[in-house]
Structure formats: C-alpha cells, structure tokens
Amino acid sequence: MKKSCLVFILPLLAALPVAAQENVPEGETIYWVDSQTDGKILNKSTFGDNWFFSIGVGANLNWGSYQSEPSLTSRILPSGAIAIGKWFSPYVGARVQGVFNSSRGVAPNLKTFHYNSAGAYLDGLFNFTNLFCGFKEDRGFNLIGILGLGGEKTLGFSERSWNPADAMFKDEGDIFLAGRIGLQAAFRLSEAWDLNVEATNAWVDDKHDGVLTSIRWDGRVNVLLGLTYHFKNHDGSRGFTFAKRDWSKYAPMNDELNRLRAATEEAKKQPNRIEKQVVNSNQIHTLISFEDNTAQINQLQEVNVYTAAQDWKEKTNGESDIYITVLGDQVKDKDLFLQRAQSIRDVLVNSYNVPAGRIFVEQNPAVVRSLDKSKSCVVVFINE
Fold first, then answer.
1. Distance CA 207, CA 178 (A)
2. pLDDT category, 5, cuts 50, 70, 90?
3. 127, 93 Cβ separation under 8 angstroms
4. I need a surface site. Which of 28, 225, 331, 342 has the fewest CB within 10 A?
C-alpha cells in the first residue's frame, strides 16, 4: 500500500516549473540518430514490408544475325513485362520479371521472318540515387540499376523464306540462358505509385533467332514504360521511413502533472488532509551502471540491457514504452547522460528489435516518477 500524500509531492512539482512539453519543439519533427554515424535510423522492416508489383509495355530492337541489313524501324516490335519484387534496404532490392517479345529475324538470304520469345529473369536492383546521394523519404526521382539472369523460350516462328539446307538452322522451342543489364528511371506519382521508364540490353545464345552464324551472341534492347505499385507495410507506410521521436507520448505525462498540480493546490487549502490509496504498479525497473566518464556498456551490464528488452517483450507484450532516465534527482552531466542513453537505445534497437519510437530519453527523472504507476512500462535507470 502506498501512502499518497500531496504534501510530499509538492517538492517534486517545484522541480518541474514547466511541463514535459517544454522540451518538445513545436511543429518540428525530430528523428532518432545513430550515435556512431550521426545518421538517422530507419524503422525496422519485416519480411512482408517493401514489396511491389509492376507492369510495363514498350518496344524491343533485336541485334545479332544479319540484323544490320533491314531498316531500323522495321526491327522495332512490341514488348511487355510484368514483375513482383522487394526492396531489402533503400539501396538494394530484387524482382522476378516475366517478359514477352515479338521479334524479327533475318535469314542468310536477307529475307525477314517473325518469331516470339517469352522468358523470366531474376534481377538485382540497385538504387544509385540513394547509394550516392543518401536515402531520402518521398524523393521524387530515383535512378535504379538492373542486373539480371534468366531464360527465354522461342516460339511462333513464321514460315522461313530460305532453304534450310543452305543455312544452319535450329528448331524453335529451345530454352536459352540469358543475361541482361539496364537502368530504370522511377518517378514518384504518389505514396503507392511510381511511373517507370526502363531500358535493358539482353544477351542470348546465337541460336535464339534460329539462325547460326559465327557471332557468339544474339541480343535485344528493350525499352518499357510502366507503373509500379508499392504494397502497404506493417506500419501503414509504403516504403522505408526514418524513426521519429513521438512527442505525443508525452501527453499522458503532462496530463498527469497537471492533475497533480491541481491536487496540490487543493491540498494547500486542506493541509491536514492525507489521502491513502492502493496502487498496483506495473512499472518494471532496471539499473544499468556505467564506469566513470564513459558511455560504453561493459560486458557485465549487457545482461541488464537484455533483461530490459526481455521484460518489454514478455511482461508488457511489446506494447508499452521504455523510459531511460538518471538514477537520482537530477542529471549532473547532461552530455554524458545523453551519450549513455544513446548507447542503451542503440543496443535495444539494433540487437533486440525494440522500435525506436517506443524508447524515450528523459533528462528529468521527476517526469518519469510522475507516470501513472498502473501504466505498463519499463524504466531503465542510469547511474551518475
């Protein structure tokens, strides 16, 4: 049983002349920052995040056996593609793309014929814009490199206009290993949609167009115009996002402080009144001790960080917040405290997958002590 005496709370409130929102920059978004790189930290992604679907139509131009003879315009024929893929990071992704091409071959007697090809590619995707300019949320344009390996099957050859005995000819229906390289320009239309312009060059075996020559490779240049749809992530976004400090979490603290202030004013009018109430505390406390003048977590204290993470996952079901504050009445060395808090936060985020938005660093320990004791949370104390 806890004796709740408002007279005792008076010194606590005296140390809090302004509510917690005093430290909240109004109208400004603050992000979590990695203490080692000073870069913003990305929100954690799951396997089901950052998937996309795309479709495109365009044209292809064959190169290879006798292709220099017909006019350029007569060699341009329609193409189509459909793909599904995933971005593993803002810089690297992969997709599986199915392609269909209507093509024109050239016989040894320089007469042309038509044939089709269908294939599938596994492409690696490399976002050059993010790699060289740094990741930025909601960027309007991205240049993406494509490097792929796959196979193509030929079909639908038209009647040949030459005597097969006069040329080495391979029957249709074979499957050929193929590789390709290219670029994609992605223009952001909305959070869910991109407009893409893609150009790739593929290399396939000389037999691909049915005509064997001394040239080792046949090939094709594809240019496609398409759309990409980004599926929703587990957090409602449709791409990678930076972890923000959610200042709205401080609203309950401010409400509680204001309630205590009002109660204190009432207690001044009735100084002999003492209220007693039973409060079942759902707070879980952990102490992490640092050596003098260092923000490095030693091996003995790593288990306490692990304990805090496990308590958060198992005892609060991962739905509560973690508060990091000082063990004492006030912070003596602000810079050292923030460095130590950042070290703890980095381990919780990077090693134990605690969302950055669930972790709050509070320089004023009185704010944390004023939390509703029935509210589930984990409080990590740092020694001074």
1. 12
2. very low
3. yes
4. 28
* 3-state class (DSSP) for residue 193: strand
Whether residue 32 is predicted with pLDDT greater than 80 in this model: the reply is: no
Q: Could you tell me which of 194, 111, 117 has the C-alpha nearest to residue 159?
A: 111
Residue type, 352: Y
pTM for the model stands at 0.60
**Burial class for 205, CB neighbours closer than 10 Å (0-12, 13-18, 19+):** middle
More confident residue, 86 or 292: 86
- Kindly report, residue by residue over 197-214, the tens digit of the pLDDT: 999 999 987 777 777 766
Q: What is the DSSP letter of 211?
A: B
Q: Are 199 and 20 in contact (CB under 8 A)?
A: no
CB contact at 8 A, 105 and 160: no
User: Each residue of 238-254: pLDDT tens digit?
Assistant: 999 888 766 565 566 66
Let me know: does 17 contact 39? Beta carbons within 8 Å: no
Please give the DSSP secondary-structure letter assigned to residue 329. Answer: S
In terms of average pLDDT, the best of 156-165, 247-256, 302-311 is: 302-311
Tell me the three state secondary structure of residue 266: helix
Going by their DSSP bridges, the two strands 359-361 and 321-326 should be labelled as parallel
Name the one residue in this structure whose structure tokens are 């193929």: 178
Alpha-carbon span 146 to 371, nearest angstrom: 52
Q: How far does CA 353 lie from the centroid of its chain? A: 14
**C-alpha closest to that of 303 among 286, 321, 324, 317:** 286
Instruction: Report the relative pairing of strands 92-106 and 112-127 from DSSP bridges.
Output: antiparallel
Give the residue, 111 or 83, on which the prediction is more confident. Answer: 83
State residue 33 phi and psi, 5-degree precision.
-125, 140
Residues 6+ away with beta carbon under 8 Å from 50:
86, 87, 88, 93, 230, 233, 239, 240
Q: Give the dihedral sign, CA 184/185/188/189.
A: negative
CB 51 within 8 Å of CB 229: no
